[in-house]
Amino acid sequence: MGYPPQPQGPYGQQQPQQPYGYSGPQPAHPGYGYQPPTSPPPPPRRNIGLIVLLAVGVPLLLLGGCAAVVLVLSGTVTSREALVTEADSPNMVLPSGGPASSAPAAESTAPPVEEAKEQPSTATVGGSLTLEGTDPGLQMTVTVNKLVNPATPAQDFMKPKTGNKFVAVQVTLSNVGQAVYSDAPTNGALLIDGEGQQYRSTFYEVREGQPFGGMATINNGDSRKGVIVFEVPETAKPAKFQFGLNSGFADQKGEWTLS
């Protein structure tokens, strides 16, 4: 009984015969799926040159920066000392004994400056006072022309209360400033009696003069005249008249003696 023929490979080579019943891995046929063995990976490169450069260069840079700072600071100190030395050189030391100069001081021949005269704030009937307002350039000359005591009501049905009377003060307002005067003159007027009691103006009219009629607008170089009416007790004696610009809110007040 002879052996069966051996299997042939692709190139006539015989494959080793496995024993019957062998179930392990079969050897690869040469020429089919053959893969050459892979070579091991190259060893990693070491950046020795870069490390040496950093190790040497960084200290050198730090040393150079420190040297530059020292040079700058030393130059600043030297220049400062030079400035101080130059500033101190012109100074002169005076002798300790005796005055620096024995020449008498020249007397001033300039005439003494006269102190500015304050604008009077009081006047009498017929007198004028120049007052300033709160607005820049607002300046008015106020003249009290006359006092009417008592004054006659302009209408019979517009009479004062029982036991009271009307007192009228005629005033002329002249604009001597640069600003336009626009105000109600009656708002800045007060009448003061002999007892120190003050009264505000009223809207009633009298026959002894024309009222301002509310607002008055006066340009530079222009003037207005009118009467300001007060209602006071019949026993009251008018003593003073006060007036201020800007409805009486200006700091400067003019005062006229009425008796």
Folded structure, characterized:
- The protein has a domain at 122-250: Immunoglobulin-like (Sandwich), CATH 2.60.40.
- The chain is built from one helix and eleven strands.
- With 259 residues, the chain is of the alpha+beta class.
- It is rod-shaped.
- The longest helix is centred in the first third of the chain and has 41 residues, at 48-88.
- It is 16% helix and 27% strand.
- The model is unreliable at 28-34, 76-104 and 113-117 (pLDDT under 50).
- The chain has a five-stranded mixed β-sheet, with no helix packed on it.
- Strand 6 (189-193) and strand 7 form a beta hairpin.
Summed up, what is this model?
The protein is 16% helix and 27% strand. The chain is an alpha+beta fold and 259 residues long. The chain has a domain at 122-250: Immunoglobulin-like (Sandwich), CATH 2.60.40.
